Batch of 4 targets.
Target 1
Amino acid sequence: MLLADRHRGTHRATGPGGLRRAGRLRELLVTGVVDSFGMALGWTFVVLVGTARGGLGEAALYNAAMLVGTVLSAPAAGWMSSRLNGRALLRTAAGVELPMRFLVLFGVISGLPAWLVAVFILVMHTAAWAGYAGLRAEVTAVDASPRTMTRFVICIVGVEAAGTALAALLPTGPDGQPAGWLLRAIFVVFLGTLLPVMLVARRARIIPAGSVFPRSPARGRHAKPGWRLPMPRLMLAGGGVMLIAAGPSLLAVPVTEELYGSSWVAGAAVAFCAGTLLADSAVGWIGRLGLPAVLRWSLWGLGMLAGWILAPLYAPFVLLAQFAAGLATTAFEGDMDARVAAEAQPGTLTRDLAYSASFRALGGAVAVRALPMMIAAPAIGMAASASALVLGVLSLIIWAGLTTAPHLFRRFAH
């Protein structure tokens, strides 16, 4: 896909539909915030009902399905971006996601088999993350600076934490479900907050990748980007950090529920939201150190884990753990996406951003599925300690390699 931004320059340059760049950024940001709030509220409700119904195992199945759907969103976004402009891509993704949101919520409430609900979740998140990649590409088309991308991620992650906290505070019955008007309100919010995506697509700047690549003389059609993995070292490094470090924070809702009850789930979500607000400053401070990307990302991974070492000992430590995880996760996602956007080739931005999210999700999917199989919730601190040790050792190896044999490590680390 091409960044069809013919009006680069100041924030006073006009964009599609006569909007100025600053106005378009606000429009995209508000759309992302509204959509993410509804998704977070509904998704947390689904996980909590699943936990009440089938324990940590069912919640982990739903989380794994969510993350696998995120993985599949990368090839889906690549396929759509080579054929559809930004308007059609965003509306197609939202058109698939909307009925899936209904089926997921209806399925978990009505007691459908967990595996079937997981299938709906997988399709829902495949469409959701393909659309999110398109939305991030639209943001980059207006302003490609790392600071803008990091702030966009901060707002999205922060409002997701707020939606999670609200869902955890909703009054429920013995089966973990609200009733009456409250249940209907959850349906309305979960489904209705997706509608702004369809509206904001009217002024999309992205055009199909095939329209900017030269025609192939041999085949007589547009040559399109291949299906090779883009930036394999960066993608594998990002996925590896999530595999090692993200398990405890991704399972924070069911783990906190089992350890301390739903009231602490809300507190942990608020703490996570507060942590995201410092991510922009943290990225700037770490950036001034001039560290290679892999070492920066290792530091973010250690931040995701640090608080969870003590979380099972005393309930308030959960708040500290999620505060640190919110800061580190948001900084890591913004850092990685900015790096991917900076290195993307013309016509591949949406696909590359989708792969960036999918490799993080792949690492997270393995972590959330494997962690409950190896340990129970009270042992989460031991798992966090072991993961921090592994990540620390790997960081030391990379640092030593950069110091003693830079010709071997520099290409991988930077």
Target 2
Amino acid sequence: MAALGKRRPPRPRSGVSGLQERRREAPASPPASGEETVLTIQGLAHDGRGVARTAAGKTVFVEGALPGERVEVAVHRTRQRYDEAHVRALVEASPERVTPPCAHFAQCGGCDLQHLSLAGQRRHKQAVLRELLARRGIAPAGEPELLVDAGEGYRRRARLGVKVDADGNVHLGFRARHSHRLVDIEACPVLVPSLSALPEPLRRLVEALEAPRRVGHLELLASDAGVTLVVRQLRDHAADTARWRAFAEAHGLHLARRVGRETPVFEWLTPRPALAGRLRVASQEVTLSFSPGDFLQANEAVNQRMVAAALAWLAPLAEGERVLDLFAGVGNFSLPLAAQGARVRAVEGSPTMVERLADNARRNGLAVKARQADLNDGAACLALLADPAPGTVVLDPPRDGAETACRLLARHPVPRVLYVSCDPATLARDAAHLVRAGYVVSRWAVVDMFAHTAHLESMLLLESPHAGQPRQGATTDG
């Protein structure tokens, strides 16, 4: 036990990781006699894979293929109703195929649409949102708005996995797609430059540690205060802690760590910085303070556009209009709405986040009432809607959605519901409760928070002609 976490003698690294490693370990079986190996891609699945069909009608999902292309495929997984394959060779390429900006594209699972032009990616996301809403009987007018910014250098937070293999080789990077294997990353073009420059120096540091196996992962965060590095350690190691401090000093980083297995303890190893971001609201600026571990939108520029769109959609806000912000976080929507004159009640499930939200309101001189509640509890949600009744409800839930709140809003309608979602499937499910109760989608948008990925964020503004008229008999089952 004394050697737990200690370095083993290293052997030369194989250089094999991610998708290449999976294919080497489990090579694709050759197709059966007469089975097609060249297919025409008919469209894109929601996750960004190409969709084709064999002459027999079986669906094939093809990684790395684009609509209109003819590709030679290798099937790597066969199922009863469909096959999964990857491109062995391009026979005829799409005019929207581009050279991926990242050298790790073929292995890393982080950005799966880099081979498709940005314009093509965004059309795909618009189509996905439209289709998912249509499946629930929702057909908004016109095309969804696009809230976008740069395709590279946008991500201000990242989590790097660290693993020491059986041969003592250090791997540091992101996960391969559908795998726990790490792809070694030297730099990442979607990270802001101050973070993209760090993976390779960090790997060299971990290789120099006496107990590299005690490092679980590394969190990187860029803010107005500079770059913060949080080290996740299973156990303390005094000599290695000194190395981390020296690295932080040499690179001008703020340094913190989480130590322990089941309930890790967080502590700063350098003076605590004032971590904050800014949002422009008309002629003033709102400052959002946060701590490592708080939820923070990864794309600062697109988040600014999203908040600005929300304010524009809800304008004009009557002076003192009551707004109920559910899943409020540290105040991403609450504070800008209050800065526009709304009387905001902000509700969050995490007590720590509620404290942060209240502190942010005080620092900005804004009258926001912050409170904690379980927003999956029907009685708690009903009480929030009744005392006092809001004119606008803002929903910004996690991926599970806000079905409890939407069922209640269907029965107790308010004039406007602004729903901000990181999962279009749960958004469509929840919005269906509202639409069946008479709400109308008046604005909708695709928020391209994560360019080069299939991840889709979106916003709906739903308005009710029945506001203030409880509909106790309304059917809200989905």
Target 3
Amino acid sequence: MFKKVNNIFLVYYGSFNTKSGSNIHILELLRNLKKYTDIVLFAPGQKSVDRTLPWIKYVPVIDNKYLVQPSYEFMLSFYLLYSCIKNRPDVLYLRQNSFPFFPIILCKIFKIPSIVEVNGLVLDELKVNPDSKSFTYRVFSYLALRSEKFNYRYCDRIVSVTDKLRDELVRLYSIPKDKVYVINNGANTDVFKPLDRELAKAELGLENSKKYICFVGHLAAWQGVEFLIYASPLILEKCSDARFLVVGDGVMKDKLLEITSGLGLSDKFIFTGRIPYERVPLYINAADVCVAPFIQERNSKIGLSALKTYEYLACGKPIVASSIPGVKDLIEFSGGGISVTPENPEELAAAVVKLLSNESTRAVMGENGRRYVVENHGWDGVARKIMDMCRDLI
């Protein structure tokens, strides 16, 4: 018999006052799940948050970087308790980040089926975060580790974004393998779609005569953007008309600017800083090649299902990306790019030059990548898989 899921509570601990991949993920999930059921998203309500976003219940917090998460966990307990009494959800879906405890406790008390989505491991984040040695960060990390252990044990299902991450969860937390379902990330193929390259360049004020290599994403240590910078002299040696777009912001930005300046390449790179989500496709479409030079640490062990790689392909752009589990698989299955050894500027440069030098290869890879993402990795498909899981639980 077909089971109807009437409503879902979606619980998120990230902040909507910044643009990030996790925010895009949760909002796309919300928008697509809304097609199939009633859904409410609970999220921290800082003063600077855009409150025009629909179907979000903003929970008041203390707007201080050290107190946002503790105060959110405290206030969320009252908001969730009241909401469960007033309109009990069929399923509670929690994205694991920060240090949530109460949502799963509440689910056990009210016998509400629960799903926890996992995109990474706290231990791996600790290794590559530049603030990892600070006392505050270590306290928060300790709580996050305890939260992981508690939630993975007591939830009903776990969604992992990669096979490798699923295997690590099973190994580290002794979780039954059949409790963990792998659902990769996706792309909004209506927003991220091929556009005329010359028109995109013109709108962004970029030189039409140049060839652009584009990186999009949060400038964090694990993204490996410095290896694109180290590769750039080798690329420029073969393609003097190449230029580099680094789209995004983050803790590594100043360091990356310093490296670029030290190599005397500041005039070859454009660091855009944070830009609106809806303008990201313009930068991707202005590029000839897109890159994802992830480092090995943190990434190789758990694999990656990186939003940028799906969005690059959805725009019909060939990609050069580190040969990380998940990313390498995407490139091989789609035929949309070239995978290279992580942290190897020479190999990265050679792959970029190969694509810049052959327009027909770029076109074929771009068509392959777009087709593959549309058929296999749209957000609607992700939402339908989650709905199937919810129906199994109720």
Target 4
Amino acid sequence: MTVRFSAVKSPASFKRAAAWALPYWTRGEAGRETPQDLFRVLYFGWLAAFTLKVLGSAWDVSWHFKWLRDDLAPPHLLNSAGTAIVVALTIIHGYTGYGVDKIALRLIQWGTGTFLVAVPLDLINHRVNGLDITSWSPSHILLYVGTFFMIAGVIRGWYLGARQGRERVVVLGAFFAFFLENMHFPEQHQEYGILSLGAWDNGATYAEPILLQFAADQMGRPIDRTMMAGFTLPVPDYLYPVYAVVGVLTVLVVARAMVGRFGAATLVAGSYVLFRTLIWPLLTFTGFPPSAVPFFMVVAGLLVDLAFLVRVPVVRAVLGAAGVTAIAYGALVAQNAIMGPVYGAITGQEGLSGAPPLATPSAVWAGLGLLVAWLAIEWMAGRRRQRPIEALPRPVIAPAAPLA
């Protein structure tokens, strides 16, 4: 008997679910034989947890550009619901050993632990320093790092243990979309900030007066444009494009390499951009500040997919580095026919919905950074291909256990 989430509605259903799950609650080492039904339940649980966390985090950025911070704000509570599921799943994996190998388990445990440590540190930071104006603060970065390792462990566990087929590919792509969201999350400060600063220049404000006054008092300034610039864009202009190219778009390269199908990078990037596009009206129509949406990522994903058609690794890396850098800066438009529509997409985004400052001179460093990251990925993928398949630890998927 298979217990589905939709069936768990009544006390009797809960009893059946408990009767199904209880026999699996036994101590075991990571990598033990995992029943197929249990494996899917665990990883669909991860999908539910990450969905709650993403919904909460997306609301959180907009909330903090409007209201003074509150520990019990609705976005925090929504994110905390997802975190509670994460903790439960981490305990289940760690105690039973089901659904993960040792490396995946360690990544999940260290990631979850880092995140849980970062939460009280962030609360202390706000108590000591008042308003935390930037999403790039040390305590926030620690939250991203914890989530980074957490999702990396989940991706590894699913990649090694899921059966071949469409579901394996789709869920793997979904996990990479969550991974991309976490990697790009701090850059939303600039995406919200550039439009909030533009609103100020046009004689309007999105933030409530209490938030503006609190920020001004913390900076020791009156509420003027200098204060608004420090509140909305507190980091150097080069950070957004360089981070987007070296950090965020490296995720697309890894996603394309692991999924192994043309279009994987485009779909992962497109899924994230679609999510940001859908929540944009939901937030703005309810009175929250708008943000610039990173539409350029869709074209970036397409260029990554095109780059993987080139069979020579070094040429593939150079093509990818040049192409993705052009997406962020539009600096290489004349050098490649593909760059024409890319430049048009960036120009259209700047004209229609706005984009954070690009700091064009840093394009060289962004391109070199992605090139190094891409070559490192190629090197690691080459080493993995040289290892015998039987040397790869992977959880074994067994037939579903019958319900007594």
